[in-house]
Amino acid sequence: MNIKDIFSKKIYREDEFNADFVDHPIGNQNLYRLHYYETYKRETDGNYGLVDIYYKPFMLPPEMSREDGFKVLSYLTDYIEEKGNMKECSWKSVQTLDKVLDIERLGFTRVLEDYQDEDVIDLFTVSGRVKRFMNTPYYQKYFEWYIPGVKKEEVKKIYNSLNMTFTDLVPVNESKKRKLCK
């Protein structure tokens, strides 16, 4: 292999980490679910690995618009990542957000009955070699739901308009966390 081949392969590998996704149309369904998708290269054998996890569907609080719901979810994501000292767009962040949706005072409702995949709007978080996501059937369902920079005051206004009160999550106490881990 000559230097040109090595260089072009390196560019390709770096290129896999960048992609300009296009928003695809979404329906008017009222069921949503968090969906984490990551492609990575395994160090052991050089093959690609995949993490593809979707969570239980949920509905937004009654009378909350889709746009406001995405603002709330975006704020919660940022809060979780900052206060939990988590990597952006990580599986741990998405998993934690999914658990937060079960907090009753936030007003989200889990859907436990039978549903079809076409009844659900997937809220994708794509990580790793993101360009590979574009070659999956999921890509046709992708749209950017995350809204950066949502402030707490905006989320409070959203909840106030629904006659609900919003309070931040309780951050994890790091000193207690360390005592449990040995």
Polypeptide structure, described:
The chain has five helices and five strands. The protein is α+β, with helices and mostly antiparallel strands and 182 residues long. A three-stranded mixed β-sheet has the order 2-1-5, covered by helices on one side. α2 crosses α3 and α2 crosses α4. It is globular. The termini are far apart.
What is the compact description of this entry?
The chain is an alpha+beta fold and 182 residues long. It is 32% helix and 17% strand.
Rg to the nearest angstrom? 19 Å
Shape: globular
Instruction: Please give the largest β-sheet.
Output: 3 strands, mixed
SS-based structural class?
alpha+beta
Q: Flag low-confidence runs.
A: 1-12, 174-182
- Helix and strand sequence: HEEEHHEEHH
Alpha plus pi helix count:
5
Average pLDDT value? 87
Separation of termini?
Answer: 47 Å
Count of beta strands: 5
Strand content bin: 15-25%
Main-sheet strand order equals 2-1-5
The helicity comes to 25-40%
Which helices and strands occur, and which strands form pairs?
Layout: H1 3-15, E1 31-41, E2 48-54, E3 58-59, H2 66-83, H3 91-100, E4 109-110, E5 120-128, H4 152-161, H5 174-180
Parallel strand pairs: 1-5
Antiparallel strand pairs: 1-2, 3-4
Defining key terms:
globular, three-stranded mixed β-sheet, 182 residues, alpha+beta, 5 strands, disordered C terminus
